[in-house]
């Protein structure tokens, strides 16, 4: 069929990527940053209202059931909890903006001090996980695409479906049972990092949480990579490369990879965002001292400033990776 | 020894159905064979199989492809790769998708050659100059999407030629190009093959293209070679009924001839036949045609045709010589025009694409608007129908001013002006049956539902020769020609006085194009006015009464089709006419066919 698709003049008339588009990129990023600030402000309102709406009275929890009414009132006044909600929010927001996250209600220490080490621990865990997830997903996705519809591909698809459908904590519990407690007992079942130590001084403690994060991440991301690789391998330029007599290695890595990578990169950034969110469950499960487990503890102890700080932190990180995905996606489209 | 020797090449799908059946031919060095066939004939599958390649889902199941003394189909995968690299070049149909968007063209040009990039660069520069492209480093650093369609195709040709192969396979390389670019590319192909002593197989659906470039012509249908021979043998004294029918359906710029379409539809790839594959559509069919598959037999002129009645067919084909048609004589002056357009300017943002266009369409007249891609012809039709709003100018329809924007137009005006789109694959809703597609406008304009609507839809479908039993099918179950007929029926159901046809035949095979053109001509005889937009001057000659030639948004020439095509005044029209390829035909008077 000879449907006219490409034509000289149509191609000439099409906007060529020129200076106008390049200068549009900073503008795009600036606009994104602005909408981002609005989004984060909304998040701050939601976080504040949600923590206020939590059941139970903070002062009662801190002072215990035997506290007198005067003691409770006194504490509420000290904590500023007797002021109207709006001014409480305003005080909280203005101090957060100046970098003061408040003091923990449980220990009385500044939140930023308590969180510093945990942020570092969590960031380390997530970074190592991402460093492993990205190349592994690429490799697995590529292999599955090359052996498409063969036994290897089919068994991979089946397995990844099961892993994706299973909640993280179930996979984590199974891994703990398999390697930590019941069957093999080769790895420590909990990943306690003593305060003051950096995580990589305890590699054995990191193996299991990383394994779960990588397993979940790779099964998700590699499916996307597989699909975009299949698209590219079916393309006419790959067909032409085969016809030209190029070696398979060159076709896969020079012709297919850059084109297959492009749609996978935004997915990878979103993956990173999800890994941060998912770390709450993993960290709690393995008792890893990161912000995820800190959040769980804070919720249990009604430690409002801690909860607010951690959720805001996660929202910012999630938001940044999402924006990154968007920008990379736009760049990719304009290419 | 011949440079290329193909014997018994057979390709089957995974389910065992044969899509290329026992194809054999031979080529000397420097010879070009045109391989012509309609969609689904298996010609592109043959083109790929010549490189020992079959698409996913298909397999080469038998035969030999000997190029330069090597049987490609007997090689181990690694040797086959080396053989492809050294022996065969391939030029794809659509370079826009066949060149890698993420790689510089310099890299793509050198990577398929033996030796290092440095060694090959001088040769690449030389070939780029031969194909009329710049050869400097800046050009080599560009990406494919920074080139025009014609340039991309030249790059693809340079890529195939540069390694100095024994055989080059061209898979419809000019299909997406303008006539003038196509003419340049074909000239270049012929010169390159002659100069470098390369054999070439040139696949195309266009007989005129094949006749221009090929020393030999092979006609394929349903996976089989039906006729093969020299260009003169096949085009001037075709022996197979299918070749004859195909030639009958090609329009010409020189004469207004009735176009004869081939009845029925082409078989689906892999369909099985007892006897001759063309028997169901053949005008010369006999009982024995259906009994056993005919073999290729030598014809008296030196070619070969797969037909048991070759001699009979050749003796009787003179009966098919057609009387030229005459376009309707000048209509009475003073007839109110159906549509007049004055001073139409249109733009996209700051880019103006149409300048000061004015024309009239008389009742029952077909106004052909011809121009190359980018000339603004589609923008013009979108302005007329009201889809493109960024324009100025005045429209008068049936003596009343026509609002420029669709939303300002009354229902009645909308109903009187109907539009048929270029691509019937995109213009019919895939989730609506044929009957529903035709009934939707009936309900909208006339409030017809149920039985009344079905009756009207049936009438409209019958006018375009779509049998009512197809009414409950979905577009995907129809052929391209049938879909375009349904799209026309949908427009006709509204009982329009003006039909705008935007390149309605450019996506169709020639035999199908013939049937659509003939259909439109009969509608015109019923008094329908038409604006027929096309890039094909031969189609203009077949259907147009008057023609407007559009170049870069300006009318460069207009007038009666006869006078413009016989004696063009503007250099642009002359160039367009010179670049339009013709199938040489036997002249009825001087024909010296035997018998």
Automatic annotation (TrEMBL), chain A:
A Gene Ontology biological process noted in the UniProt record is: transmembrane transport
- Respond yes or no to whether keyword Transmembrane helix is given for this record: yes
- Assigned GO CC terms: plasma membrane
Q: Where is this region: Disordered?
A: 1-20
Task: List each copy of the ABC transmembrane type-1 domain by range.
Answer: 119-325
One of the Pfam families matching this protein, by short name: BPD_transp_1
Query: Which cell locations does it reside in?
Result: Cell membrane
**Major localization listed first in the record, in broad terms:** membrane
Keyword set, alphabetical order: Cell membrane, Membrane, Transmembrane, Transmembrane helix, Transport
Q: Where are the transmembrane segments?
A: 33-54, 123-147, 159-186, 206-225, 260-286, 306-325
InterPro entries, A to Z: BPD_transp_1_N, MetI-like, MetI-like_sf
Q: What topology in the membrane does the UniProt record assign?
A: Multi-pass membrane protein
Q: Which family does it belong to?
A: Belongs to the binding-protein-dependent transport system permease family.
Q: Which PANTHER family match?
A: DIPEPTIDE TRANSPORT SYSTEM PERMEASE PROTEIN DPPB-RELATED
Record-given protein name: ABC transporter permease
The species this protein was found in: Actinomadura soli
UniProtKB/TrEMBL annotation, chain B:
Taxonomic superkingdom: Bacteria
Gene Ontology biological process terms in this record: peptide transport; transmembrane transport
Keyword annotations from UniProtKB, A to Z: ATP-binding, Nucleotide-binding, Transport
**Record PROSITE patterns:** ABC_TRANSPORTER_1, ABC_TRANSPORTER_2
The molecular function terms in GO held by this entry are: ATP binding; ATP hydrolysis activity
Q: Which residues form the ABC transporter domain?
A: 4-247, 339-577
* Listed PANTHER family: D,D-DIPEPTIDE TRANSPORT ATP-BINDING PROTEIN DDPF-RELATED, TRANSPORT ATP-BINDING PROTEIN
Tell me the NCBIfam families matching this sequence: oligo_HPY (TIGR01727), PRK11308.1 (NF008453)
Q: Family per UniProt?
A: Belongs to the ABC transporter superfamily.
Q: What's the name of the protein?
A: ABC transporter ATP-binding protein
Organism from which the protein derives: Actinomadura soli
Which taxonomic lineage does the organism of this UniProt entry have? Answer: Bacteria, Bacillati, Actinomycetota, Actinomycetes, Streptosporangiales
């Amino acid at each position: 069929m000879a449907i006219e698709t490409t034509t000289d003049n149509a191609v000439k008339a099409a906007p060529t990527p020129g200076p106008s588009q390049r200068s549009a990129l900073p503008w795009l990023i600036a606009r994104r940053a602005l909408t981002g600030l609005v989004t984060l402000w909304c998040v701050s309102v939601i976080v504040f209202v949600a923590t206020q709406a939590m059941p139970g009275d903070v002062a009662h929890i801190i002072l215990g059931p035997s506290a007198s009414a005067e003691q409770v009132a006194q504490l509420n006044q000290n904590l500023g909890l007797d002021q109207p909600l709006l001014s409480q929010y305003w005080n909280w927001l203005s101090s957060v903006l100046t970098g003061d996250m408040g003091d923990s209600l449980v220990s009385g220490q500044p939140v930023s001090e308590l969180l510093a080490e945990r942020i570092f621990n969590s960031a380390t865990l997530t970074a190592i996980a991402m460093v492993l997830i990205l190349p592994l997903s690429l490799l697995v996705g590529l292999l599955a695409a090359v052996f498409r519809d063969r036994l290897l591909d089919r068994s991979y698809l089946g397995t990844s479906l099961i892993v994706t459908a299973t909640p993280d904590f179930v996979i984590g519990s199974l891994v703990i049972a398999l390697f930590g407690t019941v069957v093999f007992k080769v790895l420590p079942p909990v990943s306690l990092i003593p305060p003051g130590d950096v995580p990589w001084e305890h590699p054995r403690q990191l193996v299991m949480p990383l394994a779960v994060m990588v397993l979940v991440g790779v099964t998700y991301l590699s499916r996307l990579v597989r699909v975009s690789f299949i698209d590219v391998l079916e393309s006419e330029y790959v067909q032409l490369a085969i016809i030209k007599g190029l070696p398979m290695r060159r076709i896969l890595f020079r012709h297919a990879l850059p084109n297959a990578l492009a749609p996978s990169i935004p997915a990878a950034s979103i993956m990173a965002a999800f890994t941060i969110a998912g770390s709450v469950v993993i960290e709690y499960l393995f008792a890893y001292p990161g912000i995820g487990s800190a959040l769980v503890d804070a919720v249990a102890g009604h430690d409002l400033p801690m909860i607010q700080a951690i959720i805001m932190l996660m929202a910012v990180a999630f938001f940044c990776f999402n924006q990154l995905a968007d920008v990379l996606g736009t760049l990719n489209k304009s290419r | 020894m011949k440079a290329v020797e193909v014997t018994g090449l057979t390709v089957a799908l995974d389910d065992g159905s044969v899509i290329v059946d026992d194809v054999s031919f031979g080529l000397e060095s420097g010879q070009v064979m045109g391989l012509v066939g309609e969609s689904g004939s298996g010609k592109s599958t043959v083109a790929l199989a010549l490189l020992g390649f079959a698409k996913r889902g298909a397999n080469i199941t038998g035969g030999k492809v000997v190029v330069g003394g090597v049987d490609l189909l007997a090689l181990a995968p690694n040797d086959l790769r080396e053989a492809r690299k050294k022996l065969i070049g391939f030029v794809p149909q659509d370079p826009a998708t066949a060149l890698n968007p993420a790689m510089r063209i310099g890299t793509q040009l050198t990577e398929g050659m033996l030796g290092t990039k440095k060694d090959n660069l001088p040769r690449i520069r030389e070939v780029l100059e031969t194909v009329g492209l710049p050869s400097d480093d800046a050009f080599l650093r560009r990406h494919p999407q920074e080139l025009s369609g014609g340039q991309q195709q030249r790059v693809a040709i340079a890529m195939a030629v540069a390694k100095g192969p024994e055989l080059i396979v061209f898979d419809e390389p000019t299909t997406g190009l303008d006539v003038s670019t196509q003419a340049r590319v074909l000239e270049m192909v012929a010169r390159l093959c002659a100069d470098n002593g390369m054999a070439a197989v040139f696949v195309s659906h266009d007989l005129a293209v094949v006749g221009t470039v090929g020393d030999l012509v092979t006609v394929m249908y349903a996976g089989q070679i039906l006729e093969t021979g020299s260009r003169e043998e096949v085009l001037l004294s075709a022996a197979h009924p299918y070749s004859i029918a195909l030639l009958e359906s090609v329009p010409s710029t020189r004469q207004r001839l009735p176009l004869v379409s081939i009845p029925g539809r082409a078989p689906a790839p892999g369909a099985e036949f007892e006897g001759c594959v063309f028997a169901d559509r053949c005008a010369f069919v006999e009982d024995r045609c259906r009994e056993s598959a005919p073999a290729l037999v030598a014809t008296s002129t030196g070619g070969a045709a797969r037909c048991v009645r070759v001699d009979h067919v050749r003796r009787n084909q003179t009966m098919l010589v057609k009387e030229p048609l005459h376009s309707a004589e000048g209509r009475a002056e003073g007839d109110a025009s159906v549509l007049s357009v004055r001073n139409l300017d249109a733009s996209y943002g700051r880019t103006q694409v149409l300048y000061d266009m004015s024309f009239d369409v008389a009742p029952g007249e077909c106004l052909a608007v011809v121009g190359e891609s980018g000339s603004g012809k589609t923008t013009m039709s979108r302005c007329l129908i009201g889809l493109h709003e960024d324009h100025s100018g005045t429209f008068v329809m049936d003596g009343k001013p026509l609002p420029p924007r669709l939303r300002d137009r009354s229902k009645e005006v909308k109903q009187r002006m109907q539009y048929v789109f270029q691509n019937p694959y995109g213009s019919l809703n895939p989730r609506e049956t044929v009957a529903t597609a035709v009934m939707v406008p009936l309900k909208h304009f006339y409030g017809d539902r149920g039985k009344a609507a079905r009756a009207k839809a049936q009438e409209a479908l019958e006018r375009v020769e779509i049998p009512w039993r197809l009414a409950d099918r979905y577009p995907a179950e129809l052929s391209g020609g049938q879909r375009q007929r349904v799209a026309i029926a949908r427009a006709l159901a509204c009982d329009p006085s003006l039909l705008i046809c935007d390149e309605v035949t450019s996506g169709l095979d020639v035999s199908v194009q013939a049937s659509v053109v003939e259909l439109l001509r009969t509608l015109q005889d019923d008094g329908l006015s038409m604006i027929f937009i096309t890039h094909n001057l031969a189609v203009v000659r077949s259907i147009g009464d008057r023609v407007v030639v559009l170049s870069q948004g300006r009318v460069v020439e207009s007038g009666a089709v006869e006078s413009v095509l016989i004696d063009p005044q503007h250099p642009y029209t002359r160039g367009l006419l010179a670049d339009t390829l013709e199938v040489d035909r036997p002249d009825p008077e001087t024909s010296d066919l035997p018998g």
